[in-house]
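Let us work through a complete example step by step.
Step 1: write down the sequence.
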Amino acid sequence: MKSMTEYLWFNVRKRREYINITDQVEEIVRRSGITEGLCLVNAMHITASVFINDAEIGLLNDFHKWLEALAPHEATSQYRHNRTGEDNADAHLKRQVMGREVVVAVTNGKLDVGPWEQIYYGEFDGRRRKRVLVKVIGE
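Step 2: predict the structure and record it as tokens.
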């Protein structure tokens, strides 16, 4: 068995953004030379997420609206975490809902995903440099 680890770096200018990283992950899988195995993709920050869903702008807007209803950013005083001087408690909660990572099968050297499945990096507290781990394991 062999493995390959790479990091994707993001400097998101907005507080919240969804970035389709499928092509970048597929390129890492291709370069790994692994034809059968697994690909782990996980956010390395506690206010960000990696998830799989449809690449449809309406759905991404629905995520935004739904997450804001579940954990609104304002008023920041409603969160005990923000009493530490931060203003990102909502981002921690949004990450819990959207998840930390995805694991995708690698079959015949490619990500084995459904017809509409795309890998997304979800940023809930942007405006600084953050990274995503991509680890491909297999033969």
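Step 3: interpret the result. Residues 88 and 125 are 6 Å apart (CA to CA).
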